[in-house]
């Protein structure tokens, strides 16, 4: 009897994954899992919650362990993790550690969404999951505290007038998507019950067919980033799909961002930094958007450095900058 034929490699997307001819996906990163619980270093508690059983949509919820001593409810950070839409999760030890630190530094409740990943679930699955999670959060603000399916960490500890959208890389892209979708007429009812004053975009994953800035001088890395989107989004528009390129005509105008303040964070050595800077500049120059946009650049650092090197001075400074943005109520 002949041994089974090994499936051929049909797609390879470095440094993230490989797809075989039989549909099997082999991931090279973002597969480790750490359980929730009390983190002794930060004194932050976490737990996993089910949002939508039919699509297996879950989230990891975080809060300071001393919330019983708070006389006022805390801001809520709705967080979307990075990973090019195809790797990682809130349970990834790197993200779990980062969220523990951020919750401790900013004194917030955090809600990290575990959206479905491509290529098994091509886009727009991640956007839909993130939107469903946002609606689930909003339901806590306008329904009774004891509503079945509601979580007491949210109903008892959150100030729903101070909800922030945040994410890194692909997660920052998702945060932008949610911030513009909330502007639509079908979504404005949600905004009557909770307020989202701020949007935090860390090393946002935006792209486009035409190279800008340093993208043109680094063709190998550009080719690598080009391939990411081809894997996760079956779109005829490629890297000018409005989901990845918010500057094309078909994309919602940036005046649709519902938040009154936006913090865009970029890293000096990150090839994605040009798009983040363009996003900030476009917001500032958009006369129809009445908010305040801030830009923060980490010198000498590359993409998601704060996730991979959380003990560095620059990573600690980044967390402090985010905490100040959240807690400054000007």
UniProtKB/TrEMBL annotation:
Catalytic positions are 169
Residues of the Alpha/beta hydrolase fold-3 domain: 77-306
The record's section on InterPro entries has: AB_hydrolase_3, AB_hydrolase_fold, Carboxylest/Gibb_receptor, Lipase_GDXG_put_SER_AS
What Gene3D superfamilies does this protein's entry cite? alpha/beta hydrolase
Pfam families of this UniProt entry?
A: Abhydrolase_3
Q: What's this protein's family per the entry?
A: Belongs to the 'GDXG' lipolytic enzyme family.
Q: What is this protein called?
A: Alpha/beta hydrolase fold-3 domain-containing protein
Q: Which organism is this entry from?
A: Stylosanthes scabra
Tell me the organism's taxonomic lineage: Eukaryota, Viridiplantae, Streptophyta, Embryophyta, Tracheophyta
